[in-house]
TrEMBL record:
InterPro entries: ATPase_NBD, Gcp-like_dom, KAE1/TsaD, Peptidase_M22_CS, TsaD. One of its GO terms (molecular function) is iron ion binding. This is tRNA N6-adenosine threonylcarbamoyltransferase. Fe cation binds at residues 108, 112, 312. Substrate binds at residues 142-146, 175, 188, 192, 284. Residues 23-319 form the Gcp-like domain. SUPFAM superfamilies: Actin-like ATPase domain. Gene3D superfamilies: 3.30.420.40. The gene is tsaD.
């Protein structure tokens, strides 16, 4: 039984994972309402909230799962906000010392790597190893406010980064675009809501790096293009055309993500046996549908993280500590925070 803590940014989270049953409990305190008033995450406030809410969450967890059954503690130790990470690591060390159980650090991004497979395990825990083996090598896309990257998981479960963003992450581009359009934080879901009633072909926004064989992402030019367009419109025109602007802007983000994923599948020459999507922006229905179509074209199964496992959550940390044990940091009481940690070897194709 693994108890996991997550505090990399603005969500305080606790989860318990049983390899024989799956996730037996998840508890989260969201700080969205707090940071919304400031237009984005304020690190000092986020740190304070983690201090306030880990103890109540652990009390709720203990009421549901006897802590004497815990055999390992896992905690996110990077990447993320340094002070926020430090709160989680300190709490995890205290629990591991009290219970005299091993402590491991889990890379937050590797949690996202494995999150699409949580449901696969829950459906048939005893068969997970064999079912996963049939889906490797796996191509995955992580799309969040701070990260956008393509990665591969080989048959030995080794993670290799194929590409990242050269500037803004996709989620960051959506949030910044929303701010330009006068929408509140977090902007991505609001853009998606307005886009549902707009025309995706109303405006022609750039799709990032154009070379077919280039896998890296770029979204700063997209944001700049929107800013220049808005400057040419009156405030009344921006409001009147907001749905079309949101739909076209969102479509540009989705097209860029799908085009690079398609290129990675093509470069894999049919070797990939599954496609995955994770991270906060994975909740975007337009993106999910587009990537599912790409998987169908390649005749491979598509796995998207469940909504509760797309953002910052301890469920994926607990699961990754078990499924990706070779990728965990077993430093124990010497565990340190790694605010700028990466998830594995980077190979440019």
């Amino acid at each position: 039984m693994i108890l996991a803590l997550e505090s990399s940014c603005d969500e305080t989270a606790v989860a318990v994972f049983d390899p024989a049953r799956g996730l037996v409990g998840e508890w989260v305190h969201s700080q969205i309402a707090l940071h919304e008033r400031h237009g984005g995450v304020v690190p000092d406030l986020a740190t304070r909230e983690h201090l306030r809410h880990f103890a109540p969450l652990l009390e709720r967890a203990q009421a549901a799962v006897p802590f004497d059954a815990i055999t390992q503690v896992a905690v996110t130790n990077g990447p993320g906000l340094a002070a926020c990470l430090a709160i989680g690591v300190a709490a995890a060390k205290a629990l591991a010392l009290q219970w005299r159980v091993p402590l491991v650090g889990v890379n937050h991004l590797r949690g996202h790597v494995w999150s699409p497979f949580i449901r696969l395990h829950a459906d048939a825990p005893a068969e997970f190893g064999d079912r996963l083996a049939a889906l490797l090598p796996h191509l995955g896309l992580i799309v969040s406010g701070g990260n956008t990257l393509l990665f591969a998981v080989d048959r030995a479960r080794q993670v290799t980064v194929l590409s990242t963003t050269r500037d803004d992450a996709a989620g960051e581009a959506l949030d910044k675009g929303a701010k330009l359009l006068g929408l509140s934080y977090p902007g991505g879901p609001l853009i998606e809501k307005l886009a549902a009633t707009g025309r995706a072909d109303a405006y022609d926004f750039p799709r990032g790096i154009g070379r077919r064989d280039e896998l890296d992402f770029s979204f700063s030019g997209l944001k700049t293009s929107l800013r220049y367009l808005i400057e040419k419109l009156s405030p009344e025109e921006v409001v009147a055309r907001r749905s079309d602007l949101c739909a076209s802007y969102q479509q540009a983000v989705v097209d860029a993500l799908v085009r690079k994923t398609r290129a990675a599948l093509r470069q894999g020459e049919g070797d990939y046996r599954s496609l995955g999507l994770s991270g906060g922006v994975a909740n975007n229905r337009t993106l999910r549908a587009a990537l599912e179509r790409e998987a169908q074209r390649s005749q491979i199964p598509f796995f998207a993280a469940q909504p509760q496992h797309t953002g910052d959550n301890a469920g994926m940390i607990a699961f990754a500590a078990w499924a990706d044990s070779a990728g965990t940091d077993a430093a124990g009481m010497k565990l340190t925070v790694e605010p700028s940690a990466t998830i594995g070897e980077t190979v440019k194709r």
